[in-house]
Design brief:
Layout: H1 3-20, H2 37-50
Helix pairs in contact: 1-2
């Protein structure tokens, strides 16, 4: 099993947990620079919706970070913002 296949299987597990426990299952962030596995994940989500399964869409965020995207977001994983209360 390759890296992409392993990631798809892990994400499939999360999708299945969403069906069973939508309120307690967390969302996830997945960065796919090759743009291959994100298509598989989106296809599986579409298939689940066609079957009448409710998808917690507020837990899904898709950010195009490929060079051919029209509008990309800045992503700095090294910054930490402190919040004072």
């Amino acid at each position: 099993m390759g890296k992409s296949s392993m990631m798809v299987e892990m994400i499939q597990s999360i999708l299945e947990m969403w069906v069973k426990e939508p309120d307690t299952t967390p969302g996830f962030t997945y960065i796919d620079p090759a743009r291959e596995t994100i298509a598989i994940i989106l296809n599986r989500l579409r298939h689940m919706k066609q079957q009448g399964i409710t998808i917690p869409e507020d837990k899904i965020h898709c950010f195009p970070i490929t060079p051919d995207a029209t509008y990309t977001i800045g992503l700095n994983c090294c910054i930490r913002q402190l919040v004072y209360h």
